Amino acid sequence: MEGLDVSSAPARDNTITNPVIPGFHPDPSICRVGEDYYLVCSSFEYFPGVPVFHSRDLVHWTQIGNALDRPSQLRLPPETSASGGLYAPTLRHHDGRFWLIVTNVSSDGNVLFTATDPAGPWSDPIRLPGVHGIDPDLAWDEDGTCWCTLAGVSQVRIDTHTGETIGEPRRVWSGTPGAKAPEAPHLYRIGDYWYLLIAEGGTERCHGVSIARGRTLDGPFEACPDNPILTHRGTEHPIQNTGHGDLVQGPDGSWWMVFLGVRPQGGTPGWHVLGRETFLAPVTWVDDWPVVGDVAPVMAAPPWPLQEPAVVPVRDDFDGGELAHGWLSPRSRPAENYSTGERPGWLSLRARGTSMDDPEVTFLGRRQQHLSCRTRVLADAADGSGGLAVRLDEQHHYEIEATPGQVQVIARIGTLRTVVATHPTAAGPVVLRVEVSATSKVTDPRQGPDTVTLGVEDGQGVFVELAALDGRYLSTEVAGGFTGRVIGVYAAAGTVHFDWFDHEPVED
Ligand code: 6LW
Q1: Domain enclosing residue 205, as ranges
Q2: How far is the CA of 184 from the centre of ligand 1 (A)?
C-alpha cells in the first residue's frame, strides 16, 4: 500500500519546507491526540473522499487512509459538478473517539462520521438534515453538548447520536464589516476564552484568517483588533490566497496554524496549477490574541526532533491487491472498472465513458505535488484505447492516448477539443510520458506557469516529444473551481492495462 502515500519534503539544515502537504490538499483541519497529529482535507468530486494524514512533528505527513472510502459513505452522483462534492471537513477527538463532519454539496449535505482509528474504518454517515451551510465545525461545551458552527457565521446544537438539531440556528459573528465570505469557522477553548477563528475575503487572492473571542462558546464575540491575523493579499509573497486555518499545539506546547495557500507561477496575473496546498506557520500569543508568524517556502524547523521523511517510491507496480491511498477517481470507482486481479501485476481499466471529457471516465490519478515532475507509464492498449492524462477537470485536460498502432496527444480546454499530434507505434505495450516543467524565469509578462510535454519513449527509452503545451490552461485561474491537477491513467474504450506508473519530482 505504499506506492503513492504522500509525504512532505525533507528537512534540510534545520529548515523545513512549506507547503507541508503539497498538491491539491485544501481546507486542512488538524487534531492532536497525545503525540500524534491527524489532518484531513477537502476532496470535492473525487472518490475516495477526505484524505487522512498522520504526523508526529507537524512537518512530515503520511497519508494513512481516506475517511470516506465506501460508496455507503460517499455519494457523488454523475451530475456532481467538478469542484462539487465534499467541502471543508473538521476533524476532532472527543470522548475517546474521532469525529469528522463534512458537507457533501452534491448529495447528502452535512454528514457526521466517527472512528476509533483515524486510519479507518469510519462509520456510515449520520445525516444532519437540520444543519444548513458549508464549513461545519464541531465543539463540545462543558456539559458535553455538541455545537456545530458554520460559514456565515451561524451556530446550532446537534445530537451526535441522531443527527437532530437542538434549538434554532443563530448568527454569532459576521466577520470584519465589508469583508466577503466569512467561512471556515473553528471554535476553541483556550485559557479563559472561547476563540472563533474564521476565513474571510474569499478563497482567491484576498483570502485571510480573522479571529474573535468571547467568554462563552455561543458568544458574544469581540473581534481581534489586528484582524486579519493572516493574509498575503496585495503582496508579492510567493505563497498567495492564504486562509482557512486551524490551530494546534506542538509537542512542546507552542502554537501552530495549518492553513491553505497557493503558489502562482509565470507572468501576470500568475497561475496556480497544484491547487490549494497545506502550509504550516508558528503562532505566538500577545494580550491573549494569536499572532501568526512569517510564512515562507523555507522556514526554521520547530525545536522538537523531526521524523525521518518517508521514502516515497517512484514506482507503483500495481502488484498488491489494494490501491495506495493517494489514488483518486472522479465521482466513483466501481470494482468492475478498476482491477489489479484481471492481469496480475497490472492495473486493468475498463472504459465507462469514451474520453477524458466524461465526468465518470475510468481514471486513476494522483495529485500533482511538484511544480516540475515526470510521469511514465507502460500501457498495453491492444484491447482498447486509453493512456496518460493531466487533469484539472473534465473540461480541462491534456493526454496522450494509445490505440493499437498509434498514439495521439489530445488537448481539451473549455469547450475546445483538439488532437494536437498523432504518431505511429510498434505493436505491443508502449511507454507514455508526461513532463511538467515550471517556468523558471519569467522573461515575458505573459509567460505561463509551466509547460506540459507529452510523448512516447522509443525502443531505446529515448523520449519522443509530440507536443509541448502551455500549462496555464490547466490552472485554477483558467478552469475555475477549488481543486488542482491530478495526473493519471485512463481507459477511453475497451480495457487498457498498465504494468507500472512512475512519478517523480524534477529539480526546478
Ligand atoms: C470551502 C471554503 C473555502 O468550503 O473554499 O477556502 C471552499 N475556503 O471554506 C471549498 O474549499
Answers
A1: 2-300
A2: 7
